[in-house]
């Protein structure tokens, strides 16, 4: 069998068949082979587990104020206390516990807003590409308009109007991010629309909705997964930025951007306040980027074989 | 005297699947003013041979063994700087794809005068005059205008003429032409070959011609090297090759070419494909496709032997009896 | 060329109309700002009188029409906080933001071009891994955090640069590095992948076969070709650059548009918010146009159509 496989590697058709039958094995193998992919996968899995079991993992109540333990340095430094591994903030709250709880908001906002953006983007992109005409013209002008306003600026205006809260944040980040999906989905739709099988289906009188869901959607799904993954990374940064500016997640909900914002005022004396939440954001985003790059290599046949 | 003498050249590529010996012990020589053709299917190692001579094999490839004597000096031993002085000056090269071999962002003149300025150490003005002269020389009409044009405005044939002008601009002793006409229309092919022949004769330039087309070989070559799977399988002069081919592979190639065949007879194609480097057969590398394969062919590899004067063949059919044991 | 420019500028009009509509709708939904403008002890009558005086009791479409009419005449409304026209306030802050953006761009280019080209020509070596790894980390760091860390190290601990403000070159260094790092990271990745592809092109082999020095092969023949996709994608990221500038300005108290905007957002000074969004959008559009022009200069194959 293995000899047979090897002799056929040049033949792309056979290759595709083999790939499909052993999809799971192939994915696992490819993940193990890609060092950065493995690192990314482990980081993302770790952050997800931390978020899910935050209440079991956190050594302290993230909101518990303790005036006796204000601004304690990390446990391994002079003056640090054993039970506060990453030190405490200006209100005596445990930084490690706050970072552990902060992962929840980051993931919640990051993932839900990307799903929302994906839904808007797919609907707009599909309609625009499939129906074309004036609808396409108008929708694409709207896309251009959104591209001309920095995401963070749009989010700022939106949050000023509707007031900052987690649900608003999810909506606003969803509404600012849909443009990328709309463009890709539209492009794919346009090219698939011209393919033989779609024309054949159309000429047989198959309903538009059926054509879209049967033929177009499955073809855009891999680009969709890749952009979504990388988009979660940028959204987590955007959420942190907004929370840092005081317009994102509001206390008492803990967020990484929020902890950082608190820590900024104590930079001269207590560097750990602002440092560790940033490390958490960077590592998480790094993991997601690695995972996304690996997914792109696996899902996009055009990038295969390149490194 | 030989301009180029390639001796036992080995060029290997290191890949994930192990070491691939693209060129595996190739020897031949090209004399002044002579045209030597290397014939073979794609994957036979003929292009890698030419790039090895140019010193353009990049990692993960490497010239592992053998020597390349150019006018007496071994190119595998000279430094980068000396190599650069030869390249485009003493040894020039024309590539297969005229459409992609010119940089789309610079004018023809810019790219042509570039090597003239570099190797002949002349100023911009002189280089320009020489370039335009070269363009006229290769039969380009309105040379002044073409000098200022970008490559995308020219046809494939015109671009190949520009490539020839570029290659010959410094009067090289050796011109390497890798499938120079493959990408062109048939009528243009003949013109380009004629042009190369004429210019080579004028300056007594030696040509190393890489091709898979026996028609081109008949038209251009004095000597022929037939390559298969990284090795030379037959090496002789062009007349002997066409009148008395010995290696079954050469015979197969000739049989599959319409020009050299009686009309009544049917064309035959060689069965199978060139083996991939990771999947080399044991013994003679041609044995799975050879109609005359014997037991010995699947076990031991034949050597390249001179079977008659100036005619070398790598085949058990022509081995001396004692060598078989 | 002029025809092409004209056509592109005409295309801006619908985009600007859509932006004005989005922004105006958001502000309309935000509700009556009059209460914020008057002293806290103002009576209900006062509020109503001012509402009528400002035309804020009229239907959406009438108010939007008036707003558009104002925009055409360059009237972006009045800031109630500063009690002057919003546009001059915004334009006054613009040079500081542009200075920061330009400096960051220069830093990004100085880092990204050699690093990207260098790692592409040494593909898959440990040095390449180091460069690409650095680029990914640069991309993963939120720039406000990088800014704070730079302040911590270079201002608080070492005392080399001022913590905040604008004026001397020393003031510019940290904000420009903060904003420039993210751009440099993205640009390095782009240049590397573009160069890797270009270096395998036939014309690069031709250039080598002429005996040109590696430097000329890489920087004359390969680099210019690789710039074409880089310019396009970098231009598309202008809005990210401006967005980053807004946050960086807040971190370093850089007196630019971002700082004005964040203040305006906090005080709900909507005229300034609207004017800033508009000016930033125009800036982004102009940058994209500039990239389009550079793209056409770089690539002779493109016709102005």
From TrEMBL, chain A:
InterPro entries to which the protein is assigned, alphabetical: BP-dependent_transpt_permease, MetI-like, MetI-like_sf, OppC_N
Domain ABC transmembrane type-1: 103-292
SUPFAM superfamilies: MetI-like (SSF161098)
Keyword Ribosomal protein: no
UniProt KW keywords: Cell membrane, Membrane, Transmembrane, Transmembrane helix, Transport
Gene3D superfamilies for this protein: MetI-like (1.10.3720.10)
UniProt superkingdom: Bacteria
Listed transmembrane segments: 39-58, 107-132, 152-176, 224-249, 269-292
Pfam family, one: OppC_N
CDD domains: TM_PBP2
Subcellular location: Cell membrane
Membrane topology category: Multi-pass membrane protein
Family in the record: Belongs to the binding-protein-dependent transport system permease family.
PANTHER family: D,D-DIPEPTIDE TRANSPORT SYSTEM PERMEASE PROTEIN DDPC-RELATED (PTHR43386:SF1), OLIGOPEPTIDE TRANSPORT SYSTEM PERMEASE PROTEIN APPC (PTHR43386)
The protein's name in its UniProt record: ABC transporter permease
Species of origin: Sporosarcina highlanderae
TrEMBL record, chain B:
Translocase is among the record's keywords: no
Localisation: Cell membrane
A molecular function GO annotation: ATP binding
Superkingdom, natural source: Bacteria
UniProt name for this protein: ABC transporter ATP-binding protein
Topology term for the membrane: Peripheral membrane protein
Keyword Transport annotated: yes
Record keywords: ATP-binding, Cell membrane, Membrane, Nucleotide-binding, Transport
Classification via SMART domains: AAA
Family: Belongs to the ABC transporter superfamily.
InterPro entries: AAA+_ATPase (IPR003593), ABC_Ni/Peptide_Import (IPR050388), ABC_transporter-like_ATP-bd (IPR003439), ABC_transporter-like_CS (IPR017871), Oligopep_ABC_C (IPR013563), P-loop_NTPase (IPR027417)
Residue ranges of every copy of the ABC transporter domain listed in the record: 4-254
From TrEMBL, chain C:
InterPro entries, A to Z: BPD_transp_1_N (IPR045621), MetI-like (IPR000515), MetI-like_sf (IPR035906)
Coiled coil: none
Domain ABC transmembrane type-1, first and last residues per copy: 94-291
Keyword Metal-binding: no
Gene3D superfamilies named in the record: MetI-like
Pfam families membership: BPD_transp_1, BPD_transp_1_N
Annotated transmembrane regions: 12-31, 100-121, 142-163, 169-185, 227-252, 272-295
Membrane topology type: Multi-pass membrane protein
Transmembrane recorded as keyword: yes
Cellular localisation: Cell membrane
UniProt keyword annotations, A-Z: Cell membrane, Membrane, Transmembrane, Transmembrane helix, Transport
PROSITE patterns xref list: ABC_TM1 (PS50928)
Family recorded in the similarity comment: Belongs to the binding-protein-dependent transport system permease family.
Entry protein name: ABC transporter permease
Taxonomy of the source species: Bacteria, Bacillati, Bacillota, Bacilli, Bacillales
């Amino acid at each position: 069998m293995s000899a047979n496989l090897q002799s056929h590697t040049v033949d792309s058709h056979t290759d595709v068949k083999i790939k499909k039958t052993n999809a799971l094995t192939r994915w696992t193998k490819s993940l193990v082979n890609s060092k950065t992919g493995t690192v990314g996968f482990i980081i993302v899995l770790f952050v997800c587990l931390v978020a899910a079991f935050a209440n079991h993992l956190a050594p302290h109540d993230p909101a518990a104020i303790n005036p006796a333990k204000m601004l304690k340095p990390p446990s391994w430094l002079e003056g640090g206390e054993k039970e506060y591994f990453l030190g405490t903030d200006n209100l005596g709250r445990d930084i490690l516990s706050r970072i552990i709880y902060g992962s929840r908001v980051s993931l919640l906002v990051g993932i839900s807003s990307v799903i929302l953006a994906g839904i808007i983007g797919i609907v707009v992109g599909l309609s625009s590409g499939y129906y074309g005409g004036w609808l396409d013209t108008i929708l694409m002008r709207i896309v251009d308009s959104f591209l001309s306003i920095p995401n963070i600026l749009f989010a700022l205006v939106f949050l000023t109007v509707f007031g900052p809260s987690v649900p608003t944040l999810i909506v606003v980040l969803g509404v600012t991010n849909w443009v990328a999906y709309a463009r890709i989905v539209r492009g794919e739709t346009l090219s698939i629309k011209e393919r033989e099988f779609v024309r054949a289906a159309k000429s047989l009188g198959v309903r538009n909705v059926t054509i879209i869901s049967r033929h177009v959607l499955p073809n855009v799904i891999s680009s969709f997964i890749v952009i979504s993954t990388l988009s979660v990374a940028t959204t987590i940064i955007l959420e942190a930025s907004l929370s840092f500016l005081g317009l994102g997640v509001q206390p008492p909900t803990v967020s990484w951007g929020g902890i950082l914002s608190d820590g900024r005022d104590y930079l001269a004396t207590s560097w750990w306040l602002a440092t560790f939440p940033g490390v958490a954001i960077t590592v998480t985003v790094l993991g997601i980027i690695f995972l996304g790059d690996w997914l792109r290599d696996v899902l996009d046949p055009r990038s295969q074989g390149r490194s | 005297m030989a301009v180029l003498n390639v001796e036992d050249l080995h060029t290997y590529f290191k890949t994930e699947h192990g070491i691939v010996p693209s060129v595996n012990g190739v020897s031949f020589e090209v004399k002044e003013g002579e045209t030597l053709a290397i014939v073979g299917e794609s994957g036979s190692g003929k292009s890698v041979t030419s790039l090895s001579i140019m010193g353009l094999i990049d990692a993960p490839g490497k010239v592992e063994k053998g020597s390349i004597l150019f006018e007496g000096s071994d190119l595998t031993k000279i430094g980068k700087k000396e190599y650069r002085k030869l390249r485009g000056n003493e040894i020039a090269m024309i590539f297969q794809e005229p459409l992609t071999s010119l940089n789309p962002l610079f004018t023809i003149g810019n790219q042509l005068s570039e090597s003239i300025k570099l190797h002949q150490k002349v100023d911009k003005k002189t280089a320009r005059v020489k370039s335009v002269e070269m363009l006229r020389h290769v039969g380009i009409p309105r040379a002044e205008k073409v000098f200022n044009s970008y490559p995308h405005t020219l046809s494939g044939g015109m671009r190949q003429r520009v490539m020839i002008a570029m290659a010959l601009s410094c009067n090289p002793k050796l011109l390497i032409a890798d499938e120079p006409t493959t990408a062109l229309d048939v009528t243009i092919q003949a013109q380009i070959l004629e042009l190369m022949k004429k210019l080579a004769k004028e300056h007594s330039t030696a040509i190393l011609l890489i091709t898979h087309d026996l028609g081109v070989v008949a038209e251009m070559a004095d000597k022929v090297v037939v390559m298969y799977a990284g090795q030379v399988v037959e090496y002789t002069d062009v007349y002997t090759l066409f009148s008395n081919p010995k290696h079954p592979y050469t015979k197969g190639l000739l049989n599959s070419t319409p020009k050299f065949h009686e009309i009544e007879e049917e064309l035959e194609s060689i069965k199978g494909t060139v083996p991939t480097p990771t999947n080399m057969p044991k013994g003679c590398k041609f044995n799975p496709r050879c109609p005359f394969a014997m037991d010995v062919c699947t076990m031991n590899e034949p050597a390249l032997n001179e079977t008659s004067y100036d005619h070398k063949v790598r085949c058990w059919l022509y081995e001396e009896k004692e060598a078989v044991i | 060329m002029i025809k092409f420019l004209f056509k592109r500028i005409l295309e801006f009009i619908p985009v600007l109309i859509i932006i004005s509509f989005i922004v105006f709708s958001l502000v309309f939904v935000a509700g009556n700002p009059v209460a914020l403008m008057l002293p806290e002890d103002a009576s209900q009558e006062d509020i109503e009188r001012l509402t009528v005086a400002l035309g804020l009791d009229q239907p959406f479409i009438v108010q939007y029409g008036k707003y558009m009419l104002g925009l055409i005449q360059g009237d972006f409304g009045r800031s109630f906080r500063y009690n002057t026209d919003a546009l001059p306030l915004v334009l006054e802050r613009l040079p500081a933001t542009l200075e920061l953006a330009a400096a960051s761009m220069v830093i990004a280019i100085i880092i990204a071009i050699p690093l990207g080209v260098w790692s592409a020509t040494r593909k898959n070596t440990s040095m390449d891994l180091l460069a690409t790894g650095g680029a990914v980390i640069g991309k993963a760091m939120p720039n406000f955090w990088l800014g704070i860390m730079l302040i911590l190290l270079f201002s608080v601990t070492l005392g080399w640069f001022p913590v905040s403000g604008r004026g001397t070159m020393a003031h510019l260094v940290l904000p420009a590095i903060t904003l420039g790092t993210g751009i440099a990271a993205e640009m390095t990745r782009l240049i590397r992948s573009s160069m890797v592809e270009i270096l395998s092109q036939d014309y690069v082999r031709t250039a080598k076969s002429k005996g040109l020095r590696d430097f000329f092969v890489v920087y004359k023949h390969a680099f210019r070709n690789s710039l074409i996709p880089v310019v396009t994608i970098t231009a598309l990221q202008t809005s990210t650059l401006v967005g980053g500038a807004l946050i960086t300005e807040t971190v370093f108290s850089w007196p630019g548009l971002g700082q004005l905007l964040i203040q305006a957002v906090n005080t709900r000074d909507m005229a300034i918010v609207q004017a800033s969004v508009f000016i930033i959008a125009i800036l982004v559009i102009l940058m994209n146009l500039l990239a389009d022009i550079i793209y056409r200069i770089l690539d002779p194959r493109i016709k102005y159509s």
